[in-house]
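Q&A log
Question type: sequence-to-structure
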Amino acid sequence: MNRTVLLSVFAITILIVSGCKQSKYAATNKIYKEQAKAYAKVLESYPLHDSAGLSYASDWVGTTNFTMRRPNYVIIHHTAQNSCEQTLKTFTVKGQREVSAHYVICKDGTVHHMLNDLLRAHHAGVSKWGNATDINSASVGIELDNNGFETFTEAQLNSLILLLQRLKNAYNIPAANFIGHGDIAPTRKNDPNWRFPWKQFSEKGFGLWWSDTTAVQIPAHFDHLSALRIVGYDIRDTSAAIQSFKRHFLQDTTKRMTPAADKILFSLYKKYQ
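Response status: OK
Response body:
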């Protein structure tokens, strides 16, 4: 892919935004377009200078073999706000919280695409999964309109399934890499909350799950903290990691391991060996 093709990704985004009907978001769409143009100019510049003005190489030789960086994770959130409109407003106010996501899905199933998948949204914050510590740079963030105490609607979940299938096909994202915000930031977040139907989504290839554990025999040497770490959880706060795991896989918000939780964790741990 040459530089002209690379810049066309931004040009297509700009055309899409320009072609949208005028709405109350026309002003923020204009800001998006201007910022995309600015990033296109940065990509076009060579040799590249960083924010401190340092040149990385005095002798620039432009390779012809490159593509855009692609997401390898999908992080599912709930908005913790009371309406889709409130969330869209939050994500289109510049200079305050500066939070964003690639997609917002409303209760009626409407999907708002807010940022090109290949650009970096500010949705994960301080987070960690396995050895990945800059989740924003490797993921697509999806916000579900839900204040954190509601059941997700059927229309919303149906739209999410269609979106996840597109993302999985487009970027070849592994099933294990569809996770929740609470999984990657267990001390700060609990979304998409315990009501999210992870089992249903795992059956469609989005996230891992466990099978019947009735006959599972746990070895005497099994260490549940090491297993949590291998699955991906940050175990620096052990109670938070356990609670996050149980919220996701047992729909249980307590902070202590139980025999049932140990069996489920052991089953998942074996998938990573």
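Response note: Residues 26-44 form the longest helix (19 residues).
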